[in-house]
Amino acid sequence: MSLIELLESGRQDVLDAVDGLTEAAALAKPSPDRWSVLECMEHVVIVEERFQGWLQNGPAIASAPKPENETRLFSMVTDRSAKVTAPEAVVPSGRFVVLKEAVLAFNAARDRSVSLVKEHGEALYTIGARHGRFGELNGVEVVHLMAGHARRHAAQIRELGEAAADPKTP
Predict the structure, then answer these.
(1) Structural domains of the chain in order of their starting residue, each with its CATH number
(2) Are the C-beta atoms of 78 and 151 separated by less than 8 Å?
(3) How many C-beta atoms surround the C-beta of residue 72 within 10 A?
(4) Which of 24, 122, 126, 149 ranks highest by number of CB atoms within 10 Å?
(5) pLDDT tens for residues 78-102?
(6) CB 46 within 8 A of CB 90
(7) How many Å apart are CA 105 and CA 155, to the nearest integer?
(8) How far is CA 20 from the centre of its chain?
C-alpha cells in the first residue's frame, strides 16, 4: 500500500468512526479520566500537525527504506491493548465544540499530510525526526505513525460511540 493510500484509508477509518454520532455522543465522557470523541479528534489533529512540522523541518539524514520497521511502528501505534498517556503538548484543550468542526479540522490536516507526502515522495527517507517513545525516525516512518495514530483513535472513537449508545457499557 502506498503512503497516500495508507493516509486515505486512515482518513476513511476516522470518518467512518464518527459517522452518525450525535453531538451528545461526541461530548460524552465514559469517565472523568477518559476523553470524549471531540477530545480524541482534537488530539488526532494536534498530533497530525506536530508530525507535519517534523516532515517540514526535520534535519537531513542518511536513511534507507526499512519496511519491517514501518510495519512494526504502524502495528505498535494501532495496538489499543497498550494504554499510553499522551504527553502534555498533545493533550486536548477544548478546541472543538461541535463534531462538524473537528471533522473539518481533521480533513484539513489530513489533506496537508497527503500534500506533504506527494511533495516529498522518496525524499521522505532523508528527513529525520525524534519521537519521544519510538526514537529516531525517518519521514516515511513518521507517516506510518501518523496513519496508525489516526486508526488507533478511530477505534477509540468507535468504543466511545458504543458506550454513549449503551450507558451500561463501562
Answers:
(1) 3-165 (1.20.120.450)
(2) yes
(3) 14
(4) 149
(5) 999 988 899 999 999 999 999 999 9
(6) yes
(7) 19
(8) 20
pLDDT of res. 167? 58
Q: Which three cell numbers stand for residue 45?
A: 489533529
pTM (whole model) above 0.90: yes
Grid coordinates representing 153 are 483513535
Q: Mind giving me the DSSP string for the chain?
A: --HHHHHHHHHHHHHHHHTT--HHHHH--SSTTS--HHHHHHHHHHHHHHHHHHHHHPPB------HHHHHHHHHHHH-TTS--PPPGGGS--S--SSHHHHHHHHHHHHHHHHHHHHHHGGGGGGBEEEETTTEEEEHHHHHHHHHHHHHHHHHHHHHHHHHHH-TT--
Grid coordinates belonging to 103: 471533522
Is the distance from CB of 111 to CB of 52 less than 8 angstroms?
no
Residue 133: exposed, middle, or buried by beta-carbon count in 10 A (0-12, 13-18, 19+)?
exposed
Closest by CA position to 61, among listed 128, 134, 120: 128
CA–CA distance, 135 with 71 (Å, rounded to integer): 15
Confidence of residue 163 (pLDDT cuts 50, 70, 90): confident
